[in-house]
Amino acid sequence: MMLIGMFDSPYVRRVAVTLKRLDIPFEHANWSVGADFERIREFSPLGRVPVLVLDDGTALVDSAAILDAIDDQVGSTHALLPATGPSRREALRLIALAIGAGEKARDQLYERMVRPPEKFHEPWVARCREQMHGAVGMIEAACRGRGSGAWLVGDQLTQADITVACISTFLSESLDVFGGEVQYPTLRSLVERCEALPEFRATHAPWFAAAMKS
Fold first, then answer.
1. Which of 28, 59, 70, 131 suits 16 as a labelling partner, its CA being 20 to 30 A distant?
2. What 3-state class would DSSP assign to 165?
3. Residue 8 contacts by C-beta under 8 Å, 6 or more apart in sequence?
4. pTM score of the predicted model
């Protein structure tokens, strides 16, 4: 099994953390969507990461589809997403908020990194920033509702915690989301607890342009 993509991508990283959490061995192809674009496209025509290449050669793309396949492989007893009921719904809600925040962060970064300076559109960036903080604020509220020291869903770490932590670390390193006027203290505490776990420590790679802050 081979996981393609760099760990500074929160989407690649949430797959890597999951594999390590479940003790599923894998080879890591630390390929960049910039420098290794054509090599990635041999497995994923879109040239996007993550890609998980199974032992039979099947290439799975998109982190959500990959994580679903992993849960199916390990079975409901070990799956990191609750199988049914309110816990599953809440986990999916928080995962969707985190992914949405990550996408809005990416849009802000692309505007600064890719678009020519004369075409930079601050109103668009401001709107993306507002959307990002709106999603992060809802996750913070969920963390406060659970209480300090609790996991997001149930009494053990789930995919909600993994995804929220991976996305939040990316937001912190790329856009200093914890360093602004709104600190999100309960979410930050959750992220710190996650990042102290061995599977998180083993997969952390600082965002490649961490010096660029909004």
1. 131
2. helix
3. 170, 205, 206, 207, 208
4. 0.93
Neighbour-count burial for 150-188, b at 16+ CB within 10 Å, e otherwise? ebbbeeebbbbbbbbbbbbbbbbbbbebbeeeeebebbb
Q: Is the peptide bond before 50 cis (omega within 30 degrees of 0)?
A: yes
Contacts of 40 (CB under 8 A, 6+ apart): 4, 5, 31, 33, 47, 48, 49, 51
Please give the Cα distance from 21 to 40 (Å, whole number).
25
**Tokens 């789930």, located at residue:** 158
Please tell me the distance from the alpha carbon of residue 63 to that of residue 71, in angstroms, as a whole number.
12
Q: Which amino acid is at 159?
A: Q
Enter the tokens of residue 67. 């994580």
